[in-house]
Amino acid sequence: KDENATKRQVTSIIIENSPNARPQSGLQDAGIIYEAIAEGGITRFAALYQESPTDSGWSGALAAAILCRLAAAI
Q1: Which of 22, 29, 69, 74 could cross-link 56 (Cys pair, CB 3.0–4.6 Å)?
Q2: Taking every annotated instance into account, which residue ranges of this chain make up the domain DUF3048 (predicted)?
C-alpha cells in the first residue's frame, strides 16, 4: 500500500471517444478511467493520472485538462 498516494497531485484529462478521435493513446497508464455520455450521444473518457500523463507517452484528442487535488472521504 502506498501511504503517500493520497498526497500526490492528480491530473484529469477528458479524452474524446468519437470514431474520428480513435485510436487514443496513454489510457492504459491511467489509474482510473470514467466514461460518460457527452453531446450527440458520443462518449468521453475522464482519465485520472497520479504521475504526469506526458511521462507515460500520452497523446491524443482531448477535450479538457484539469489539475486537481482529490481528498478521500472515509
Answers
A1: 29
A2: 3-52
Nearest of 50, 57, 69, 64 to residue 25 by alpha carbon: 57
Give the whole-angstrom CA distance, residue 31 versus residue 26. Answer: 11
- Give me the amino acid identity at 50: Q
Cell 460518460 sits at which residue? Answer: 36
Q: Are 17 and 42 in contact (CB under 8 A)?
A: yes
Look at residue 17 and tell me if it is in a domain: yes
Q: Is residue 33 part of a domain?
A: yes
3-state SS assignment for residue 54? helix
Tens of pLDDT, residues 17-57? 888 888 888 888 888 999 999 888 889 888 888 876 556 55
